[in-house]
Fold this protein.
Amino acid sequence: MIYIETFFQSIQEILLSEDTWIQIGKIILILVLAGIFVKIAKSSVNKIFLVRSKAPLRISERREATLMKLMQNVITYIVYFVAILMILDMYIDIRTIIAGAGIVGLAVGFGAQSLVKDIISGFFIIFEDQFSVGDYVRINQAEGTVEEIGLRITKIKSWTGELHIFPNGSILEVTNFSIHNSLAIVDISIAYEGDIQKAEKVINEFLETLPDQYPDLVKTPELLGVQMLGASEVVLRVAAETKPMKHTPIARALRKELKTCLDAHGIEIPFPRMVMYTRNEKQNEVI
């Protein structure tokens, strides 16, 4: 009991000490000033890139978004690292830590190999422009839009809302869907009873009008011809080159437009049919 009373008395003395509250106030002030400085620095970076975007000579928007996020992350790391050093300097001599940094760094180096690997991998991802913020990519088993690229981690947001976070050192394979143009493939079924040549002519004439309606089309869609002879239909295939990652909405629009066009020209799109056949029971009689 004596030890417990002594312990609580020591805590009480510390809490009632004026020096303790002065140090706590300094710590809070350092953290608040660090947070304010980070916000101001991030805002300044945004303004710099906004002005840069209006310059006649500029890098791609993908690179600008990536570099802006990277600079904001680096500023955050540096400012809070300095703030932590200032707080530690209130209790211990930082110069002693710096003097022993060689030995400590060697010891930490063996335990931080994965961290160093992540930072080096992040540097090469940015330097080689493997992917950028806003790109739609597939990394390992995850697929989505790149939300952030840092020196240590990369964040991918899938279309259903999940946020995948990868250490850069674990990124072994990347598929980037946002660099080159995409291709929308649409198959149209025509009944065997229909006039295939008429259908091809109607479709070709219709495809010529699409680039003016859909800016995401790179060029006029092309009717490739008969793709397949099905059980009850002839399948025609249309290919449309689109801007990166615009193939899905363009494919949906093409299906709707083609259906409306074929209906307007009286060209039937087949549907599954069932033929009932009744055998003559007399033929099954045993003589």
